[in-house]
Structure formats: structure tokens, C-alpha cells
Amino acid sequence: MTAPEIPLPLPVPTPTTQKFWDGTKQHKILLPKTADGQVFFYPRVLAPGTLDEPVEWVEASGKGTVYSFTVDRRGTASAFRAKVPYVIVIVELEEGPRMTSNMVDCAIEDVKIGMPVEAVFEDVSEEITLVKFRPS
Amino acid sequence: MRDVVVLGAGLHRFGRFPDKSLPDLGREAIENALDDSGVPFKDIEVAYVGRVLAGMGAGLSVVSEMGRTGIPVINIEMACGSSTSAFREAYLSVATGVYDTALVVGFEKMQRGLIQIADQKSYQTVMGLAVMPASYALQARRYMADHGATAEMFGQVSVKSHRNGALNPYAQYQTAVTLDDVMNSRSIADPVTLLQCSPTTDGAAAVVICAASKAAQYKSGRLAHVAGWATGSGKYEPTGDSAEGEADTGEIGRLVAMAWERAGLGPEDVDVTQVHDAFAPGEIFSIEGLGLVPVGEGAQAVWDGRTEIDGDIPVNTDGGLLSRGHPIGATGCAMVTEIVRQLTGEAGPRQVKGGDAHVGLIQNAGIGGMNILVLTS
Predict the structure, then answer these.
(1) Closest-CA distance of chain A to residue B220, Å
(2) CA A6 to CA A8: how far, in whole Å?
């Protein structure tokens, strides 16, 4: 008898992040940008470092390189324990910001720092699409 | 601000004590600290308590074990940094002249397994990314790429810590391990293996502080003074964001600079150090952030034995979080205890510099901030 599958938790968009999640639904990565041109991730009220307010959203290319990665072999929440091992990756986007995500379509032993990657979009519910990365 | 001394410190052994209650653990630590200080409990004017997982009012239930003298008992929580936060509040209350004597207590009873951060539906949490060892692992992997370090260098931190823990009768783990043991233990989040993760722990630690001008009636001889401190809650910086895979040495550096300014000392003066090695890479990032070694040279320093008890920058002489154990609310007071023992020449087989240690540095991180303390003798 197999244990019942535990559903993965999903993001709950907030007024600050709604635009980002609207973007992923359309398979786009939208990043907040300040008047001085600072583009950042994750979406928040003030930009890190400068504390400037974002004034617009810009579409990222979805391309980047692996900044760092690890293989989670333990899982924290029970829902993720069923998925181990999985790759946690920090991708440095072409536009500059770094985005934490998962690596897909790639053998664990093939993930390397500096490897080029591109975004893929995983429609996990009617409301939520997650951004993952694969080798490009 | 008045000069403040740490008159006494004491622990309940760290480990797993399913048959003991929090008051059982806390009472023993408090009794040991009071005995060490020479201060009778009736002279304690205020108690600050660091604790995280215990329920409401836990501070009072533990301190009441000593008797109900009507003093204020203040509960403080900053995750793994809770009892250095309690220490800081106690210190400020004595340094500013409100009280002459204060008791600081930290305690915890923990479950096995990975600890959970508050249930926030953050981007990282919902994608299975908010895993504490994974955060250190991401920084470690990038550090290896940037500085040519090896996974074994991180493993060596744990070898050193367990060697020290074997000399500490209060440590959870008192058995030395080999580098092979560490590297061949189960992988948790590459390159971090099981023996590079601090355990969950039951334990308690307590410290008695006193205005230096009032200390003579309780204790004479070599005393540890509070020379410097700094506390912060993290700051948006253009670089050095641990959430983005960089070792967060910038925040440690920002705070330790404040502590050095208050103490009128610098990293070159340090004889012995306690850092927050919740996971083995933490020791390397911390000694770099504290300025004990240049950024990028911490792993090599550990590999070369410089952080050993007989090295030039001894770190976590009591076994650290990795081997002494990490009952999160008690860890900060345990760090203070070890530094006090070192600065008063009472560290026994763990003693650094033949007892000629006069400047001790403490870095204790928690979710929500970090505390730096400088003690001198």
C-alpha cells in the first residue's frame, strides 16, 4: 500500500507579487525595475541595496547561468520528501538578478556552476505556473 | 555605561533527555551559574530568558525553580540567537545602572529531524528551496568555485569540532570522528553531509552578570568583562545576500566593526572565538566575516589547523554547535560560558594559549538577526 500523495504547497500571490505570477501564467518572467534601471528579483516593495521603489515591470529573456546549486537529499516539509533527490539551483539571469529555482531535464551529476540555462514554465494549477530551468 | 562583568556561567549537559522537563534542565544550569558566580539567587534583580520552542511563560516556569522572588522575568526569542539577545538586554540593563545583577538563561527541548522555519508561504518555501542545510550548501558550492576550496575542507570543520567536543563533558557528542567518517556520512544537501549538520538537542545554559563595581562582594580573581557588542537584523546590501548563494560575510563584518569600535580592539587582538557553525561551512564564512582571515582563505585556514585549540585562531573550542550541540535557545549562553572559561583560565584540556587568553569573540546568528559579543579579561 503506498502512502497518499501529499500535495506540494503553492505560492499565494500578494499585491506585491501578483504581477509576477500573472507573468508566469503567460510563460513570461516579469521583473520589477526602478527609475534608475535597477532590475531585481524577488518582487518586493523596495529594491535591495538602494531601497528605491520599482516603477515598472520588464520581461526577462529567461536565459541565464547557474550561479550555485545543491542536491536536496532530505527534504524539509513532508511534501518535498517524496521528491528527493532534487536540484536546487540559483540562476543568474542575463538581466542580472539571481533566482532560486529547481533544475529540470538534467541529470543531477551534469549540473555545473556556470552552465547556460533557460526557463521552462510548469503549469501546476489553473492559477499558478512555476519557473524552472533546464540546460540551454 | 558602567563596566559589567560575567561573574558566573554554567550548563546542563547538552544531549537528549526525554525524561527531563525544561525546569529540570534550566534549574541545573542556573544552579551551576550561581555557584560559579558566588551570587545568591535572592540577590538577582532581573532574569532574561532565551527560548524558542517552549510554550507560553516558559521563562517563568524555569526561573521559578529557584524560588519566587518577584523579579521581572523577560522571555526573548531570536531563533538560534535567542540567548545572546537575552544576554544583550541583561547587559544593557546593568550597564545603564537599572540593575546591579542579572541572570541570563537559555534552554530548549527539541524534536529529531530538520527544524522548520515559521510557516510562511514565501517563494522559496513553496518551491522546496527553504531548506536550512541547502542554504549553506549553495553558499559552500559557490565558495568552492570562487576560491578553489574542496568539500573536504568543510568536512574538516566537523573533524575539529568533534575533537574539541570529546574534551567537553557538557557536549552532546564526546567522540572524535575522522574525515572519512564525515565525508562518508549520509548526504543531506551536497556538499553538506549529516556530520556537517548541527544536531537537535536538549539543554540549558545560564550566565550571571554584575556591575563591575559590585563584583568584589561575590567573587575575586580574574573576571571576564563585557567589552563590546553589536546586534543587527540584516540589511539590504548590493552584495553578499545569502539568499542568493553568497556567503553572508558582509553582515557579520558590518556588526563586528561596531563591536570593535565599542571595545577599542580589533581582530588582531582575538585569542579565542565562538562562531555559529549550525552547518560546517558556517565556521569558514564566519571567521572570514569577522576578519580573522581574509575572505576566501577561511577554508584553507581550517585545513591547515589554524582554528584548532593549539592553532593561532582557535574557534569553537568546546565543540561548537556541531558537537557541543545546538539547543537553539541555549546556544548563545553556552558560547558565552566557553569564552568565560577560556578568559579566566578555567577551560582545562580545551584551554588555549596556556591560559594567557584575554580577548574572546562571539558570533551567534538567529533568524531575525545576529549578535556579536567581545569579552576581555
Answers:
(1) 49
(2) 6
Neighbours of A95 (CB within 10 A): 18
Q: Would you state the cell numbers that stand for residue A89, as one nine-digit string? A: 539551483
- Residue B340's Cα: distance from chain center in Å? 13
Give the distance from residue B323's alpha carbon to the nearest chain A alpha carbon, in angstroms.
21
Query: What DSSP letter does each residue of B195-208 carry, written as one string?
Result: GGBPPP-EEEEEEE
Residues of A in contact with B138 (CB under 8 A): 68-70, 88, 90
Distance CA B85, CA A26 (A): 46
Does residue A82 fall inside a structural domain?
yes
- Residues B217 and B211: their CA atoms lie apart, in Å, by 11
Question: Domain B136-194+233-325+349-376 has what CATH class?
Answer: alpha beta
Report the domain count for chain A: 1
Across the range B45-51, mean pLDDT stands at 98
Predicted confidence (pLDDT) per residue in A41-84, tens digit: 989 898 888 889 999 999 999 999 999 999 988 876 667 788 88
Please check whether residue A4 lies inside any domain of the structure.
no
Whole-angstrom distance, CA of residue B141 vs CA of residue B39: 49
Range of the domain at A70: 18-135
**CATH code where residue A37 lies:** 2.40.50.840
Predicted local distance difference test score (pLDDT) of residue B117: 60
Instruction: Dig out the grid coordinates for B256 from the structure.
Output: 563586528
Nearest to A70 among B126, B134, B145 (CB): B134
Q: Which of B366, B322, B367 is nearest to B173 (CA)?
A: B322
Question: Interior CA angle at B362 toward B359 and B366, to 5°?
Answer: 170
Q: In this structure, are residues B159 and B182 in contact, taking their beta carbons and an 8 Å threshold?
A: yes
Best of B115, B123, B142, B197 to substitute, by most chain A Cβ atoms within 10 angstroms, is B123
* Partner A contacted by B137 (CB < 8 A): yes
Q: Which residue has the cell 573536504?
A: B152
Cell 536536496: give the residue.
Answer: A72
Within a domain: A1: no
Mutation to test the B interface, candidates A74, A87, A127, most B Cβ within 10 Å: A74
Alpha carbons B332 and A25: distance in angstroms, whole number: 46
Read off the DSSP letter of residue B114: P
Residue-wise pLDDT for B236-262, tens only, equals 765 445 567 777 678 899 999 999 999
Give me the total of CB pairs closer than 8 Å, taking one residue from chain A and one from chain B: 101
Residues B100, B6: Cα–Cα separation, whole Å:
12
B296: cell is 576566501
Nearest to B138 among A12, A90, A114 (CB): A90
What is the domain partition of chain B in residue ranges? 136-194+233-325+349-376
CA distance linking residue B331 with residue B136, whole number of Å: 19
pLDDT given for residue B17 in this prediction: 97
Q: Which residue has the higher pLDDT, B130 or B45?
A: B45
- The pTM for the full model equals 0.94
